[in-house]
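Folding Task

Wanted — backbone structure
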Amino acid sequence: MGFLRDFTNGLWNENPTFRIVIGMCPTLAITNQAINGLVMGLATTFVLLASEIVVSLIKKLVPNEVRIPSYVVIIATFVTFVDYFLKAFLPDVAAALSLFIPLIVVNCIILGRAEAFASKNPVKNSIADALGMGLGFTWALVLLSVIREFLGSGSVFGFRLLGNWYPRMTIMLLPAGAFISLGLLMGVMNLISRKKSGKEVN
């Protein structure tokens, strides 16, 4: 039961993007195309999963004084792997994501979960937490990216769904479009949560 609770927690109740509102830098910067949101989400999920496993395994071996620097080194190792992987196999996406892949090292989602959860829980629960938080971050980025790309260029994942007749909303591909889309989605999610909690009370 604990495994399932830890997994589903990041998908909705403590979704990093819509509920806790952390990791906003890549969320606002790279979500103008759906492929960027998907790759960034999966890259973050991999780093989160790998780092939480390692941190959970070595938590008793790391002195308290060097806890945070040790976690940063562990995270940086997996981020480097992801960075080289993307440059080798998805160079166009790697170029689009640019410096936001290396910045995963200081992403408060990853460092925060390593400190707040993995360092205090067994490996099984850390895996559940990492998958839940990572996939929660991923679906949020993909949803935001799909909306922005569709409204901004009439396509999704590069496939054009609307013809030349569609008056493209260029603002949706700009930073302002990211703020507008994120605000509206957060409002909808809060509304759903309130209705859900109201039904549970009744």
